[in-house]
């Protein structure tokens, strides 16, 4: 089906599926099929922050004091985070927007991706402060084998869905030969690709990101690189919301609350989806191996990080209806929770006294008693 | 008429029982009683504290944004409205 930026056909978004129905026309939010996405948008916008608001200047001094293995851990971790957000800053827009059929979901995806671009900008903010020329760091992301290996897996499902969608939108359903390769394009196959892609996105945001957060916060636990940690806290808060949204999508599908085809696919592709999570876990463990190849740091080593990967994978898989596959029962890094608490997130220095600072909080309900101690 | 109760008995499966005040979120009550429940955001959007509600009623202090199944609650943003029986993932 050809994509149109303004579908002239009258549609009823209340009966459209989330994906692969009619293209959205009017961006209206007065009625919603899945109100949760509008709520997520509101919450996400209330989280708005700018990297420049966080002072990272002290980190430069801390960084000089780190040992070489610690520098390797810190910089590699930052490179990985930069990769993850480079992918997330564009891919949900490109992969999902052309096939979304609900206005509230369309706007959620745009809001979500926009916040990923804030994250990307914050890595430059951090690196510019640490190095007079951060080019070497950025350039290595594309040539470093360890990073490339996980980049390939992260982008694979997106690329697959995007390519198939492009064929479908230009050539329609059928068998299409492109550059000597035959592609079978029909809506059911497209939906399968979408299902696998959504699982891969969930694994990225719910597991891969958290492994990197654990490394960042391990430095902060030692009162090192605190500016950086403050930024990553803000990123973690956003990612928490993003992973909730993909959990919602996956669960709506699996429980038959959206598109009956997707409910069937969720059952049919259960093993394949599960394998995506197991692969992500395996890759994160290999990554831990690379991070700590030159030596550990106080409070964090390869074994603890691997246990955390298993713990967080159990939690995330349980949340979307998969049996938790690992033995680990309790959180091996209990201090992580202090960094993931929304209330502990502080944006600007002037807000340091106010733990839960909200932008645009205006209370229009004023009671007469509010003026009781007011004299002219 | 008697005032509404200020606390309810909570039966945590495999752990024991505790009294939860209607002033605190269920998560805070669990923590006060020494039950180390999982949590991240404490604001209802991450879902880390997702808990199975076997019986009883709760009221949300903020709208939960994380996915919860029909038989699940988010202790971080709810208070008990009756005695509860819950299964907390530890």
UniProtKB/TrEMBL annotation, chain B:
Keywords: Ubiquinone. It comes from the Bacteria. InterPro entries: 2Fe-2S_ferredoxin-like_sf, 2Fe-2S_ferredoxin-type, 2Fe2S_fd_BS, Beta-grasp_dom_sf. Residues 8-90 form the 2Fe-2S ferredoxin-type domain. Transmembrane segments: none annotated. PROSITE patterns: 2FE2S_FER_1, 2FE2S_FER_2. It holds the Pfam family Fer2. Signal peptide: none annotated. GO terms for molecular function: 2 iron, 2 sulfur cluster binding. This is Ferredoxin. The lineage of its organism: Bacteria, Pseudomonadati, Pseudomonadota, Gammaproteobacteria, Alteromonadales.
């Amino acid at each position: 089906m050809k994509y149109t930026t303004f579908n002239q056909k009258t549609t009823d978004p209340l009966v459209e599926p989330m994906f692969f129905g009619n293209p959205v026309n009017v961006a209206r939010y007065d009625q919603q099929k899945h109100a949760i996405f509008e709520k997520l948008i509101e919450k996400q916008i209330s989280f708005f922050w700018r990297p420049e608001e966080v002072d990272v200047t002290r980190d430069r001094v801390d960084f000089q004091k780190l040992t070489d293995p610690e520098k390797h851990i810190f910089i590699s971790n930052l490179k990985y985070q930069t990769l993850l957000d480079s992918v997330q800053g564009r891919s949900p827009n490109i992969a999902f927007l052309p096939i979304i059929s609900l206005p509230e979901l369309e706007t959620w995806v745009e809001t979500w991706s926009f916040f990923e671009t804030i994250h990307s900008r914050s890595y430059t903010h951090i690196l510019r402060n640490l190095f007079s020329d951060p080019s070497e760091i950025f350039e290595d992301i594309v040539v470093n084998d360890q990073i490339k290996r996980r980049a390939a897996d992260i982008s694979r499902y997106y690329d697959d869905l995007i390519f198939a969608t492009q064929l479908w939108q230009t050539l329609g359903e059928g068998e299409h030969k492109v550059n000597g390769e035959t592609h079978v394009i029909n809506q059911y196959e497209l939906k399968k690709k979408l299902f696998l892609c959504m699982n891969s996105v969930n694994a990225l945001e719910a597991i891969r990101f958290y492994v990197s957060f654990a490394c960042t916060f391990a430095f902060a636990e030692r009162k090192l690189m605190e500016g950086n940690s403050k930024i990553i806290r803000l990123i973690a808060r956003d990612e928490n919301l993003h992973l909730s949204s993909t959990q919602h999508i996956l669960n709506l599908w699996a429980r038959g609350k959206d598109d009956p085809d997707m409910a069937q696919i969720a059952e049919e592709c259960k093993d394949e989806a599960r394998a995506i999570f197991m692969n992500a876990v395996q890759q994160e463990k290999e990554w831990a191996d690379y991070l700590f190849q030159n030596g550990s740091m106080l409070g964090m080593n390869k074994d603890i990080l691997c246990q955390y990967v298993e713990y967080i994978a159990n939690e995330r898989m349980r949340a979307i209806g998969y049996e938790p596959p690992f033995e680990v029962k309790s959180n091996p890094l209990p201090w992580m929770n202090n960094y993931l608490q929304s209330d502990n997130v502080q944006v600007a220095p002037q807000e340091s006294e106010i733990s839960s600072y909200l932008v645009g909080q205006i209370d229009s309900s004023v009671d007469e008693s509010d003026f009781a101690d007011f004299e002219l | 008429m008697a005032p509404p109760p200020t606390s309810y008995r909570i039966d945590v499966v495999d752990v024991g029982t505790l009294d939860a005040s209607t002033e605190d979120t269920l998560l805070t009550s669990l923590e006060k009683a020494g039950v180390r429940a999982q949590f991240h955001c404490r604001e209802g959007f991450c879902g880390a504290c997702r808990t199975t509600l076997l019986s009883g009623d709760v009221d949300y202090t903020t709208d939960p944004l994380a996915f919860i199944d029909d038989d699940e609650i988010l202790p971080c943003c709810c208070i008990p409205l009756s005695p509860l029986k819950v299964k907390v993932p530890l």
